Amino acid sequence: MNASKPQINDADELGSIAIETQGLSQGQIVRKKFFRHKAAVISLGVLSALVVFVFSALDNKLFGFTIPGWWQFSHTDMPELNFDDCPFDSPGCPTLDAIPFLDGDGVMLGAHPFGQDDIGRDYFALVLKGTQRSLMVMVVIGIIAAFIGTVVGAVSGFFRGWIDAILMRLTDFIITIPSIIIGSVIGYHFGNLGALFLAFYLGLFAWTGLSRLIRGEFLTLREREFVDAARVAGASDRRIIFKHILPNAVGIIIVSVTLLMSGAILLETGLSYLGFGVVPPDVSLGLLVSTYQESFTIRPWLFWWPGVFIVTIALCVNFIGDGLRDAFDPRQAHKMSRKERKAAKAGVSVE
Amino acid sequence: MLGYIVRRLGILVVILLGSSFILYNLAAISTNPLEQLLLSGAENVDFLIAQLTLELRLDLPPPLRYFIWLEGVLGAFTGSFDLGATREGQLVVSELAMAVPITVRLVLASTILAIILGISVGVVSALRQYSRFDYSTTFVAFLMFSLPVFWVAVLLKEYIAISFNNFLSQPNMSLTWIFIFSSVVAVFWAGIISGNRIRVVTVFGVALFVTAILLYLLDATDWFLAPRLGIFVIVLLSIGIAFAVTQLSMGIDNRNALYAALSVAAFGAVSYFPLNMLFDDVTGFSGFALIGLGFVVVSGLIGLAFARIDRGPIVRTTSITGLVVYLLISYDQYLQVWYDYIRFGSVSYRPIPTVGQTNSLLQFEENVTYWIRSLDVLVHLILPTMALTLISFAGYIRYSRGTMLEVLNQDYIRTARAKGLNERTVVMRHAFQNTMIPITTIMVVDFAGVIGGAIITERVFGWTGMGTLFNKAITTYDLNLLMGVFLVTGFLAVFANLVADLLYSFLDPRIRVGAGK
Predict the structure, then answer these.
(1) A209 Cβ contact partners less than 8 Å away, ≥ 6 residues apart
(2) Which pTM value belongs to this model?
(3) ipTM rounded to 2 decimals
(4) Contacts of residue B482 in chain A, CB cutoff 8 Å?
(5) pLDDT of B60-83, one tens digit each?
(6) Mind listing the domains of chain A with CATH numbers?
């Protein structure tokens, strides 16, 4: 028997939800639940810090103006290769020193915290540039896929009939092609146009799973009473879709777009690794890993740093997605801590 | 039902037609195969262009070319199936026939491992919801989700393969390493066992001590160079297997089942030496499989002899026990040839390779038996299998945990507990069996997806399967080859969906396939 674990039964759970959410708007409830998901909040913090860090470090060109970054090198500068104090006489080892006690040099960044690549380019700048690219690709794919997926899913779920049949067959066609195959075909030929174009074209084929989900959501929502009420009140189709149904489906859209984005960053790095994504002279994290995987034994930093950034971004996005899913899920009750549970029990017995 | 299947097969064909049309045109319009020629500046460039145009039918627009390709595919109905030739002149069909088994070999072991590990970890973490174990597996699963396979692969090569090979050249563990390894193992066990602090600390201490002693003994006896289990360890392990399988499938309280499983373990011990002799004569996989089949059948018969009323479950228990014991004995056989294997000149004490699918120099060695050959295949599988398992089992953890939790909160589980069934029956029979229904369908679809996704893994580990073909197809503008690869992956994907739907309706009687509509 399961006596060792106190289980909260359904009635209590529902009751606690009702009390918790009394008098709060949908947005407030979601925000409250999201901020209770510790891993998600930490991830959000880390990711925002990372974005600020990465984009402020290097020079940004916006509409012809150059906003100077705080880092001294850009990813195209070629300072002299540094051979001093390197293990195995390898060129360009990192000057970053984060462990002050081992060699007594103290914490310092140095001229090239992540080292230098074969021709002396500053690896810190390269990795940050690559991270910028990967983040941008992720966001662009996310936005385009979200837009197309929502439109296709909403239209086919709302209108049903032959529109639905055509759109869903089209979705089936694209979903059958493994994303790495379609990505490679596109990436091999559009990769040299730059990361933005690559992301744009990848986004054109990444919406299929999302549109299926949204279609399902629309199919159930359109049968609900509030839609009937709106229709009786004389609302147009467009108004029903945008004002009545879409706000109710926004949770599922946000959650799946987040998860889609974490998949997108892995897709981009994978394609760049295969040589079908971002191509030199542009930089991307996958490209850096692929270029320097052979140097792992002697110059491991060339391999570690881009990987660490990929994993950090993907992990953060995944956790944020998980937090959002919990936040938007109406069945999800607040898990009471042991203290709260005790307090609740005490409260009941006092009454 | 039959009508439903036929209709679904029809839809399958339509979907494949549509998606191949999209892919073909996408691939055809996104590049110009003549570009290289135009840039090359060769003297007879016009002639070369004309030749290539004729060869690839570039005079026709892509949608029309697609139908030329399709004509060959549809030839399957008239007996002249033709996927065309590659640009180098080989038949696509024969290229695929060589590549597909290699890719399947690459992903099969890892998929099975990922399923078994993922489901067991997921179910355990659902049973221990909000425990330390649950939190850590959740974190690990998310971490695995976020790892790019090519990155993990390089790490594995460095830290597993190369360092193990280095270790084998000097197979002596320092006490520090023994301590570190044992601590890791102990943390693992302490994490799984839940309970109060004293219990966790005890588990940690015992695990640390036992592992350290074991490692010390193995190290002192040079076990890593010439490993073997020996009859004594095999008997102990078989008894353990018998207990474990019985507990999971019928419960130890069922004496009949326990005795039956123990007899299978005894049977394994008795047949250890005869099996070893038989193994020496095995020359191929079929012989190995045949002996295994015989062993499992005998185990099943032992179960039958013990069965009184619950014949089916007991036979199932003994058959599974028999299979595991047989695998154990063959594992021992591999250990016996291990020392011979690593001494070969082409291996020279570095048995875990980082690239390739077989050791091509091995065929020039003398005395290469079936066991050596298959051991060679197996060691080449170690790293890719580890990488793929790490990546894909996170999904199974999350999914089986979620499903299990949902099932555990159902009313009938409460009913089962209320009527006094023991926890094993509730978990294994009532909850787990129903958890498996959606997971089974996920498995099928996932397997098809893994084959498509193995492209990167193949590249990292230097295998020449479908990924290599695909790579070649894209970089050399070989549409026939590209479409051939796609036909295999695409067909698998769509077909897996169909199988998943049928399985679902078979496993869950509430779902009636083909009803309605």
Answers:
(1) A149, A175, A256, A260
(2) 0.82
(3) 0.80
(4) 185
(5) 777 888 888 887 777 767 766 777
(6) 26-336 (1.10.3720.10)
